[in-house]
Amino acid sequence: MKKILIIYFSNDGSTEKMAEKISHGVNSVDNAEAVLRTISKINDSHADSIANENNILYATNDDLKDCDALIMGSPTHFGNMAAPMKFFLDGTTAEWFNNTLCGKPAGVFTSTSSIHGGQESTLLSMMLPLLHHGMIISGIPYSNKELSETRTGGTPYGPTHFSGDGKNKLSDSEAKLCFSFGERIAKLALKL
Questions:
Q1: What would the DSSP string read from start to end of the chain?
Q2: Percent of the chain with pLDDT over 90
Q3: How far apart are the C-alpha atoms of 104 and 133, rounded to whole Å?
Q4: CA-to-CA distance for 74 and 94, rounded, in angstroms?
Q5: Chain centre distance of CA 189
Q6: Which of 38, 23, 41, 35 minimizes the C-alpha distance to 77?
Q7: pLDDT score for 127
Q8: Nearest CA to 148 among 176, 122, 108?
Q9: CA angle 170, 172, 176 (to 5 degrees)
Q10: Which residues contact 27 (CB under 8 A, 6 or more apart)?
Q11: Which of 146, 142, 154 lies closest to 110, judged by CA?
Q12: Which of 35, 55, 127, 174 lies 20 to 30 A from 141 at CA?
C-alpha cells in the first residue's frame, strides 16, 4: 500500500476542503492510501496536543519518512505560502541531508480569497523546497478538460480555489481537479 501524505494549513477551512477532495482521489486508486495531516499556526502551542479540533493529526517529520508521495496545500498570503507551511518546511533540513524525499512524487495546491491573489506564485513558491529535496513535481495536464473549463480556480501547476470571503464552496470544476490531482499523484507513486 502506497502512502500519499497530504499536508495542509487552513485558515477558514477552504484549503482543508481541497485536501479532503484530493484525499478522495488518492483513495480511489487501488493500493494507495491518503494520509491527511495539518499544521497549526506558528503562535499556537500544540505541544500537549497531537491533533486539531477536527482530529486531524499535526504533521511531523516522521510523516515525511513514511510517505511514498507528498501533496502540500496552503492558503495564499501575499502571493506566497502561509508562514506556518514555510516554518514546517524550514524544519526539514535533516530530511534534506538524508535524501528522505528524493525521488518521490509531489504536488501542491492553494486557495485564495481574491481571484487574482497570487494562486500560481503560491504554488511555485511551494514547489521550490520540494525541488531542493529532489522530489518529482507534478501538476495537472491540459488533457484534464476541467482545467480549460474552470472559471474559478485551477492551474497546470496544481489545484486552486477562489474562496472569496471563505464562504465560496468548491466549484464543480475545482472539486474535479482536486480529485483527479490526488488520483494522478497516487498513480505516479505506484509507477515509481
A1: -EEEEEEE--SSSHHHHHHHHHHHHHHTSTTEEEEEEE---TT---TT-SB-TT-PBBP-HHHHHH-SEEEEEEEEETTEE-HHHHHHHHT-HHHHHTTSSTT-EEEEEEEESSTTS-HHHHHHHHHHHHHHTT-EE----TTSTHHHH-SSS-BTTB-EEE-TTTTPPPPHHHHHHHHHHHHHHHHHHHH-
A2: 77
A3: 9
A4: 23
A5: 15
A6: 41
A7: 98
A8: 176
A9: 95
A10: 33, 34, 182
A11: 154
A12: 35
In this prediction, residues 22-51 reach a mean pLDDT of 89
Q: Are 73 and 109 contacting, i.e. CB atoms less than 8 angstroms apart? A: yes
Closest of 13, 3, 15 to residue 109, by C-alpha:
15
How many whole angstroms separate alpha carbon 170 and alpha carbon 73? 15
- Residue-wise pLDDT tens digits, 151-172: 888 899 999 998 887 778 999 9
Tell if the pTM clears 0.85, that is, is over it: yes
Residues in the chain: 192
- Which has the closest alpha carbon to 18: 135, 88, 108, 131? 108
| Mean pLDDT, residues 23-34 | 98
